[in-house]
Every structure is written in structure tokens, then in C-alpha cells.
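Lab notebook, bench 4. The sequencing result for the construct came back, and we need a structural model before the next group meeting so we can plan mutations. Quick request posted to the team channel:

Model the 3D structure of this chain.
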Amino acid sequence: MSRNRVEDFGPYQDGLKLFDHVVEDMEILRKDCRCYRLVGQQVGSADSICANMDEGFGRLSRTEFIRFLDISRGSARETLGRYKRLKHWLSKDTIAARVDIVDGIIARLTKSINTLRANNNTRNEPARRSPDGEGGTRSSMIHESHALYGTTVADRDTVSEKEIEELLRIGARDTRHATPDTL
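Done. Here's the predicted structure in C-alpha cell form:
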């Protein structure tokens, strides 16, 4: 994984931008005593998006890598939900802009997770769709796996350089306006 850096992963890049926005947005709220806890939680969840991708890219186990991407996606959902609840203090335009960034992060993480799970063939169940309807079916992921790698990888628990490159390619796609069938 030495050639591929987490900094090249599209969701990570968006997570860094989102974190900067969160810090800026929370500056507005930090003086309101009703928001002290919300400010800390929002900064923490936004930080966790990138922190878990950092840790996941550092793992050698495919299973752990997938798990940390999934945790990162959960932190993105937390950040998204809190932005929607901050409507009492932030403008509609600010919230809409942040929701758009977070939706893109969630969609691309979902695509990456589903691709890794299908390529690893670690589950006997279909790839799950996220609550937003993002993600693909197991059969389409396996078809994509055959097209990309020639076969599915059934008994390996490490992520290859080629697979990281594919994830970086997937992560670079703008999937915010894609339908589940086009992901």
C-alpha cells in the first residue's frame, strides 16, 4: 500500500473539507451555552470520518479495513443527522451545502465497502443497501469483481495494491446524484 495514500481517496479528501467547514460552522455556535455539547460532538464526529479512514488504510487485514470504512460511514451519518438538527442556528444554505458533502462521502464509502465485501466474498448474504438506498446488489458486485480481477477472492484477507487503486478510482467518482443501479 505504499504507493497509495489515504490522502488520495476521494471520501477522505471530502472529509477533510467537511471538517474545515464544521470547525468554521461551530465557531458560530460555541458562544451559545445551549450548544456547548453539540459543538464538541459535531467536531468529534466530523474528525472521526477521516480518523477512521486513516486507521483503516493502515490495517493489513481486509476485514479490519472494511470495518474502519464502515465506522467512518457511521460517523458521516452522525455528522449528517446533527447538521439537520442544527437548523435552529445555521442557515438553510449552509446546512444544504454540508449535507451535499456528507451525502457524497456516504455514497462513495458505501460503494467502496460493497466492492471490498464482494471481492472478498466474506459474506453469504447480499450486499446491504444503506438507509439512503445507496449500494449495489451482490450479483452486480461479483460481476464487477470478475470484470476487474478475473475472479472473486474467496480466501484472502488482505487488500492488494490493485484493489486499493480501484477503491481510489471509485472514491474519485462523484456519486452524489447517482442512482443505486449506476453505482
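The chain has one domain: 6-174.
Will bring this to the meeting.
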